[in-house]
Structures are given as C-alpha cells and as structure tokens.
Write a structure and sequence with these properties.
Elements (H helix, E strand, L loop, with lengths): L7 H14 L3 H18 L3 H4 L1 H8 L13 H7 L5
Helix pairs in contact: 1-2
C-alpha cells in the first residue's frame, strides 16, 4: 500500500527523521507511528485498560461449589492414598 505525502514540511520532517535514525523512510514512518500510538494508549487510565480483564474476572463464580484446596479426598486420590 502506497502513501503520498503532498505536504512539503511533512516530507522534510520524515526525511530528516529517516536520516537521523539511519533507516529507510518506510521504517522511520512505521517506528514513529508505532511510538505515537503507544503514547496515546498510555494516556488511557489503567482502570479503563483493565476493564476487559475486570469483566472477565467478575464473570467467574464468587466461590467454587466444591473447593479443592481443602478437599482431603481429592488429594488422597492424587497419591492413591485410600484411608
């Protein structure tokens, strides 16, 4: 996919960036856009960024019906210990 930069000032900035970085123009543009995207994402508060995870955790049952941590039969079965 090709992009045409018709603004001389933008073209000059891109070329200077590529020269300073010692990279091809396409790489300089790609890196600059990726960095700017990351900066914009970082502006979103952590609470909002974690919303999908919070919703997923909230969908789990509050307490398992049969917890395994204290289930003697479960652990005895793991060790073939039938007491």
């Amino acid at each position: 996919m090709a992009y045409s930069i018709k603004d001389p000032e933008t073209d000059e900035i891109i070329r200077k960036l590529a020269k300073v970085k010692g990279k091809p123009i396409v790489e300089a543009i790609k890196e600059a856009c990726a960095n700017e995207l990351e900066r914009e994402r970082a502006k979103i508060p952590l609470w909002e960024r974690l919303q999908p995870l919070r919703a997923r955790v909230a969908s789990y049952p509050a307490k398992p019906e049969q917890p395994f941590a204290n289930d003697k039969e479960f652990f005895d079965a793991l060790w073939n210990d039938e007491k």
